[in-house]
Specification:
It is a single chain. By secondary structure, the chain is mainly α. 81% of the residues lie in helices and 0% in strands. It has one domain. The protein starts with a helix and ends in a 9-residue tail after the last helix.
């Protein structure tokens, strides 16, 4: 826990870092809501919001926060190293894509993913969407922990 708190202090040491986190958080949450609106014909924001149940909204809120935190922590690592690694960018992108897939809690979201996964994949995601969301949250928390260890210098080659 001490490692995580130290990494968070370093990550949010400047006011601009806090503003970056808030902008990323809002942007991720808005994207989670707007992607189905943009990709589903005839869908609008009010209708999309009415389809999202409170548990799905909470999951989207948590995932947006974890994504914003992870990207902010990777920005801190880049400032510390002053270079960008493909591995860091890939892990942030993987967590973000996973969290988008975890928002399959609403029926209108299925149509945009149908072209990628097919009917069988969508039926699977629809039936087990809470389990998929829990797995994505778990992977996100693991990524935050490993990134915190990297910021604190506990491991030079952490998989983040």
């Amino acid at each position: 826990m001490k490692v995580l708190m130290g990494a968070l202090r370093k990550t949010f040491s400047r006011r601009v870092d806090v503003l970056l986190f808030l902008a990323l958080f809002a942007g991720a949450f808005v994207l989670f809501v707007l992607v189905p609106v943009w990709t589903t014909p005839g869908n609008d924001l009010a209708f999309q919001w009415s389809l999202l149940s409170p548990p799905i909204r909470a999951i989207m809120f948590v995932l947006a926060g974890l994504n914003a935190l992870l990207i902010s922590m990777h920005a801190q690592i880049r400032r510390m190293r002053a270079t960008s690694s493909v591995r860091e960018t890939t892990s942030s992108l993987a967590v973000f894509v996973g969290s988008v897939f975890a928002t399959v809690g609403c029926a209108s979201c299925y149509s945009s993913l149908l072209s990628v996964f097919g009917l069988g994949g969508i039926v699977f995601f629809g039936k087990y969407h809470y389990w998929v969301s829990a797995a994505v949250i778990g992977v996100s928390l693991w990524a935050v922990w490993m990134t915190a260890r990297r910021i604190e210098g506990e491991c030079a080659r952490c998989v983040t």
